[in-house]
From TrEMBL:
Annotated protein name in UniProt: DUF2461 domain-containing protein
Domain of life from the UniProt record: Bacteria
InterPro entries: CHP02453 (IPR012808), UCP028451 (IPR015996)
Length: 225
């Protein structure tokens, strides 16, 4: 099934030099027809598909989809609209940072499909570090496997310069213990959004990401004990 037409990409191309409310209001019907509504259908189907693998991801689309309006209160850039659409699937919705979720981002520049933990709570961050230290071989078997590396490359994320003494020795052997976030994913060409197999493609990346996601879920459960 094709979710998006070329008009999806064209809307954002046209928005770029016209990023103000007057233009957006004049083109709101275009936005609804070619961007907002197709994206909601895609996210709805994605939730249903991935929910077959992990029922905790079965949430309402409105809780996953980010608004197109930018928060400009503290920004020097006062353009009111984002140049992309995005959604994040996690049990608590898009603001849930304490569950390894999936982030999907579509724009005329690229498509992103990312997984992992982004700025989790201190409790979960510390527990992930302990789990990696205690199960370093298992963690590396997943994150350094040829399948994982071919799909996602290296795990990304900001780091701390100092970690707790209990994990410091293992951190010398596994630098990802220093991470504050653990993110991995793929950047695809923008025309990927026009593919008929977009849902299948996204699901396939989820399957490849799932072993490490389960590792992080285990850390979350341990942090709650």
């Amino acid at each position: 099934m094709r979710y998006f037409q070329p008009e999806f990409l064209q809307f954002f191309i046209d928005l770029a030099p016209n990023n103000h409310k007057d233009w957006f209001d004049q083109n709101r019907n275009r936005y609804k027809k070619f961007v907002k509504e197709p994206f909601k259908v895609f996210v709805t189907d994605l939730i249903e598909r991935l929910g077959q693998h992990n029922p905790q991801l079965k949430i309402e689309p409105k809780h996953a989809i980010f608004r197109i309006n930018r928060d400009i209160r503290f920004s020097k850039d006062k353009t009111p609209y984002k140049m992309h659409v995005a959604a994040a699937l996690a049990p608590g919705g898009k603001k849930d940072h304490d569950y390894p979720g999936i982030y999907v981002h579509l724009s005329p520049e690229k498509m992103l499909v990312y997984f992992g933990l982004f700025n989790p709570s201190r409790e979960l961050r510390d527990q992930v570090r302990v789990k990696i230290a205690n199960e370093r071989k298992r963690f590396q078997d997943i994150s350094q496997s040829p399948t994982f590396v071919e799909a996602f490359g290296e795990i990304e994320g900001d780091k701390n310069k100092i970690v707790a003494k209990e994990v410091k020795k293992q951190a010398q052997k596994e630098p990802l213990i220093y991470n504050k976030s653990w993110l991995y994913g793929v950047e695809l060409p923008p025309e990927t959004v026009l593919r008929d197999d977009l849902l299948d493609l996204t699901e396939n990346y989820f399957k490849l990401a799932e072993p490490l996601m389960k590792f992080f879920v285990e850390a979350k459960i341990q942090a709650m004990d």
